Amino acid sequence: MGGGKRFAVLLCADDSDYVKKRYGGYYGVFVEMLAEEGETWDVYKVANGEFPDDDEIPDFDGFVITGSCNDAHGNDVWICRLIALLNKLDSLNKKVLGICFGHQILSRALGGKTGRSISGWDIGVTSIHLSSSSSKLFSSLKIPTTLSVIECHRDEVRELPPKAEVVAWSEKTGVEMFRYGDHILGIQGHPEYTKDILLHLIGRLLQLSFIEESYADVLKARLVRVEPDKEAWKKLCTSFLKGRL
Predict the structure, then answer these.
(1) One of 103, 176, 190, 237 is an active-site residue; which one?
(2) Does residue 190 have an active-site annotation?
(3) Which ranges carry the Glutamine amidotransferase domain (predicted)?
(4) pLDDT digits (tens, 9 = 90+) for 180-194
């Protein structure tokens, strides 16, 4: 099925003990959602300064950029290196899927603007709406035009890169998804997350005093009542990355 294709996860966060133990790290979470038979999946811990060499890049069919605790508008050394890598991948027309921080850093690398969300944290399962043009783009997938996705972010894409197109929006976030050409797709939410990963993250955010205990309790109660559209997201992400749209 995979036809011998090769992909890389650009890991932009340290694995929590929970995710490491339960899923083999965030790399394992992405592989579980995206990998198909016959493919090779590698990981580069870019947040720790581990990047693919220039001569390795042509060997890959696509790249996935993960979420991060860092700000996409920051200027850490690894973030600046990542921006340079993304510009190279764009010039080579490589398929690139960016998730949360990955979505934001793609926008920045291509000339857009990111920053703190005016409406604050978005944590939970959010309904996002596909634009009319993107509904046509994804019509072969036979997925709903409104999709539920797990979100956990307080930054957002404020201004799209030139020539980029909004693919989806929500009541809280104007750019939930964007595409750039037919080779780059950014998704603000976390299609790869399960509810238990989000519950664990809510606990960590509370522990670090990023959110109040009363808010954490509300989030946990809400989470019991809703489910993300994981299968639809899996179909959308794999179809984009493997060039099946």
Answers:
(1) 190
(2) yes
(3) 53-194
(4) 999 999 999 999 999
